[in-house]
Automatic annotation (TrEMBL):
UniProt subcellular location: Nucleus
Annotated Acidic residues bias: 1-10
Species this protein is from: Macrostomum lignano
Segments forming domain Pseudouridine synthase I TruA alpha/beta: 206-303
Protein name, entry field: Pseudouridylate synthase 1 homolog
GO molecular function: RNA binding; tRNA pseudouridine(38-40) synthase activity
Main location: nucleus
Binding sites annotated in the UniProt record for substrate: 170
SUPFAM superfamilies: Pseudouridine synthase (SSF55120)
Record's GO cellular component terms: nucleus
EC number: 5.4.99.12
Length: 361
């Protein structure tokens, strides 16, 4: 059964300035100062009265190229940094809230690393939703073009977009030549054969279940549950062939997926044996190669039962809008920049792909 959206109580009218009204006046004053501080000459169109501020879900799509990840980090360009800059410039949040996002009950559904993109990132925070369409249009007008606010809508008062996630799905878009035998010269016209493709599927299937990812991260809590890890049929974009790897899991750690892909590449290319898939899931430290970040994409965030509660918002439609990001940013980025080609050509990374025999005992 759907839970009703919980309203916040509105203050009763009074002839005298009450504490709540004084607080409101102070908030408006802070808001005006924040708008002035950003050089925004537009009048703030958002009324910051408590009764108008509700918990909201924001759906974002972005290309991570040129950004140092999702999370705000002073001195670095990040996705959240650009979002908060746009919200402040438009008068949708105060300067105090900008500096202390906890006052907005801000939460992100998933972190993404440097260079990683997303078709469907979700954040939740308290915003004035009296005119959600205008808010969306205004924020998009201020965001860089490679970051888009797909939708913003009201949710339940206590919704936490991170805590309510059932599982996350990432895709890794990879040129087929990454899986060619190490004995072959690197050739961008390479087309993967059925033998290499089946070996890749065998590698990826070994990630399923609960494993110890000690060798894939510096995180102290390194056990993770992977629901599945698959690869689709090869397809062409421009003159190159690609395969799309998809992994679903409850949660992922920093660099985990890129190292999962890096190890699979090392095995399929013949730098190490398939037994390495068992050896790495121990507490014996091994140096696992990390694939480039460009191909990694946060594909979907699954909320399970909560999806039923917000079905009327038609998340699937919003996700389909985001599909256009793949060819325009991921495929084109690889064909133009050849990040995988540069990684494979780097002698440092090539040396890390080889495991000594004693590592596998």
């Amino acid at each position: 059964m759907k839970r009703p959206i919980e309203d916040e109580e509105s203050s009763c009218a009074s002839a005298e300035p009450t504490e709540s009204k004084q607080a409101k006046l102070a908030s408006d004053s802070n808001n005006d100062a924040a708008v002035a501080a950003t050089g925004n000459t537009r009048n703030c169109t958002i009324n910051r009265r408590r009764g108008d501020v509700k918990k909201a879900i924001l759906m974002l799509m972005y290309s991570g190229s040129g950004y140092y990840g999702m999370q705000r980090n002073t001195g670095f360009d990040t996705i959240e940094g650009a979002l908060f800059d746009s919200l402040l410039a438009g008068g949708h949040i105060t300067e105090e809230e900008y500096l202390s996002p906890g006052k907005l009950q801000f939460q992100r559904a998933s972190k993404t690393d440097k260079g990683v993109s997303a078709l469907a990132q979700v954040v939740s925070m308290k915003l004035n939703l009296s005119d959600a369409d205008s808010l969306k249009a205004d924020v998009n007008s201020r965001l860089p073009t490679q970051i888009r606010l797909l939708d913003v809508f009201r949710t339940t008062k206590n919704f936490n977009c991170k805590a309510r996630v059932n599982h996350r799905e990432y895709a890794y878009i990879c040129p087929s030549y990454a899986f060619a035998s190490k004995s072959r010269p690197i050739d961008i016209t390479y087309r993967i054969d059925s033998t290499q493709l089946e070996l890749l599927r065998s590698c990826l299937s070994r990630y399923k279940g609960t494993k110890n990812y000690y060798n894939f991260t510096s995180d102290a809590s390194c056990n993770r549950y992977i629901i599945d890890f698959t690869v689709g049929e090869p397809f062409e974009y421009r003159d190159a062939e690609f395969v799309e790897l998809r992994v679903r899991g409850q949660s992922f750690m920093l660099h985990q997926i890129r190292k999962m892909v890096g190890l699979a590449i090392a095995i399929v290319k013949g730098y190490c044996r398939l037994e390495a898939m068992d050896a790495v899931f121990t507490y014996k430290r091994m140096d696992v190669p990390k694939a480039p970040g460009l191909g990694l994409l946060l594909n979907k965030i699954h909320y399970g039962a909560y999806n039923e509660e917000v079905r009327s918002q038609n998340w699937a439609t919003q996700l389909s809008i985001g599909i256009g990001l793949k060819p325009s940013e991921i495929y084109r980025g690889e064909t133009d920049n050849r990040s995988m080609l540069a990684w494979l050509s780097d002698a440092h990374y090539a040396s890390r792909m080889t495991f000594d025999r004693h590592d596998l005992t």
